[in-house]
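re: ur question from yesterday

yeah so i grabbed the chain u mentioned. its 105 aa long if i counted rite. heres the sequnce exactly as i have it in my notes:
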Amino acid sequence: MEEIAIIANHLAMSQELFSKTYLRRVYQRYALLERPQNYDCIFLDNNKCSIYAVRPKQCRTYPWWPGNIESPEAWRITQQHCEGINEEAPIVSMEEIERQLKDFI
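ran it thru and got these structure tokens back, copy pasting raw so excuse formatting
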């Protein structure tokens, strides 16, 4: 709920209006809406996050999710969906990846 408050504040919206406008319920949690045509996050605009400064933890830790790094094949599949994983992308240290994952899990 803290992330909802932070994003709502960033957008100068009440939490209630933000929730009604941008969230959906998934089991006992909330998720940001996705665009129906391609399942991109509602806040992704021209491949850039429009709320980057306050993006949720799930987004801050991507692509280091356990399922994405469990094997070379999983990583190759993730590369197909993440423009930040390529030869030109900056190298992220293992310490930084572990720190982000610790915060996520």
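noticed a couple things. The mean pLDDT is 88. also Residues 94-104 form the longest helix (11 residues).
anyway ttyl
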